[in-house]
């Protein structure tokens, strides 16, 4: 059963059997069972207009591959509209997904996710609807379904009551513009390797200080792009006092 604050997800795809897929297990799967989010798949092929049920055609201007037809994709969107929440098209050309976007999507009442196949979707249908283009990174997948799964997994874990410990999201990578500090658990000594003393001290302020310093150093070394944003905000905060 859907709870009043649950997220209604609609996935438009040529491969509805790929859903819920991994979203049906573990944290997301339990949240689905608990009604924290709901899933509806729309089979784009069911909107095909000919007896061969074709959904794609060759690109005008020539070139490799096939393009998803605007009339078919349009009918699939049209049949399920109007609707609240963003209409997301997953594409390598989109804005690269980050934790701030994930947080924004998690605050929506509904998400509609359009998965491309072949070379992608005819531009005119993307221009005809209020589409938000999102990429999951600078590489090319064979279809939008895996990208949709990645996006939804990141969103669902942020829904209220999905993560066991409400705090476990706040310290994670990207939440403060930093990567996460190193993690340790029992045993305190493993294969001759020990745990940093401060973590065994029980001194919460010192632990927090050590973690922040580690997170800053790891971010500075590994992600100069994140580091410059964080360093600028920190400098500004120091100036403000
Ligand atoms: N011709 C496209 C290009 O060069 O940008 C790539 C098409 S790809 C083979 C087929 C579909 O996979 C895309 O329409 C998109 O839905 C999905 N896809 C591939 N890579 C993606 C990525 N990095 N992020 C989001 N979706 C992606």
Strand order in the largest sheet:
2-1-6-5-7
Number of strands: 9
- Unique bound compounds: S-adenosylmethionine
Largest sheet: 5 strands, parallel
Order of helices and strands: EHEEEHEHEHEHEEHHH
Overall body shape: elongated
- The assigned structural class equals alpha/beta
What does this structure look like?
The protein is of the alpha/beta class. It is about 35% helix and about 20% strand. The protein has a five-stranded parallel β-sheet. A two-stranded antiparallel sheet has the order 3-4. α7 crosses α8 (about 225-240). The chain is elongated, with a radius of gyration of 22 Å. The site of S-adenosylmethionine has 19 residues, from β5 and α5.
Chain-wise SSE layout:
Blueprint: E1 7-13, H1 26-33, E2 37-43, E3 56-57, E4 67-68, H2 70-79, E5 87-96, H3 99-106, E6 110-115, H4 123-128, E7 131-135, H5 144-156, E8 189-190, E9 193-194, H6 197-200, H7 204-222, H8 224-240
Parallel strand pairs: 1-2, 1-6, 5-6, 5-7
Antiparallel strand pairs: 3-4, 8-9
Question: What structural keywords apply?
Answer:
241 residues, alpha/beta, five-stranded parallel beta sheet, two-stranded antiparallel sheet, 8 helices, 18% strand, elongated, binds S-adenosylmethionine
Brief characterization of the structure:
The protein has 241 residues and is α/β, with parallel strands linked by helices.
């Amino acid at each position: 059963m859907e709870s009043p604050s649950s997220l209604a997800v609609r996935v438009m795809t040529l491969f509805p059997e790929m859903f819920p897929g991994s979203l049906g297990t573990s944290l997301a799967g339990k949240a689905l069972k608990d009604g924290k989010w709901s899933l509806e798949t729309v089979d784009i092929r069911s909107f095909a207009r000919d007896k061969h049920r074709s959904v794609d055609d060759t690109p005008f201007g020539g070139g490799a591959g096939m393009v998803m037809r605007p009339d078919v994709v349009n009918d699939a969107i049209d049949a399920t509209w109007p609707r609240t929440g963003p209409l997301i098209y997953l594409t390598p050309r989109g804005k690269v997904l980050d934790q701030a976007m994930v947080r924004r999507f998690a605050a929506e009442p509904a998400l509609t996710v359009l998965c491309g196949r072949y070379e992608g979707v005819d531009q005119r249908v993307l221009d005809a609807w209020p589409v938000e283009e999102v990429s999951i990174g600078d590489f090319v997948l064979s279809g939008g379904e895996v990208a949709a799964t990645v996006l939804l997994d990141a969103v669902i874990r942020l829904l209220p009551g999905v993560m066991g410990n409400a705090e476990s999201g706040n310290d994670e990578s990207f939440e403060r513009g930093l990567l996460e500090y190193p993690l340790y658990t029992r045993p305190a000594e493993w294969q001759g390797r020990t745990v940093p003393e401060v973590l065994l001290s029980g001194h919460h302020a010192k632990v927090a200080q050590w973690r922040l310093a580690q997170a800053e150093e790891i971010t500075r070394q590994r992600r100069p792009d994140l580091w410059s944003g964080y360093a600028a905000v920190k400098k500004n905060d120091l100036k403000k006092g």
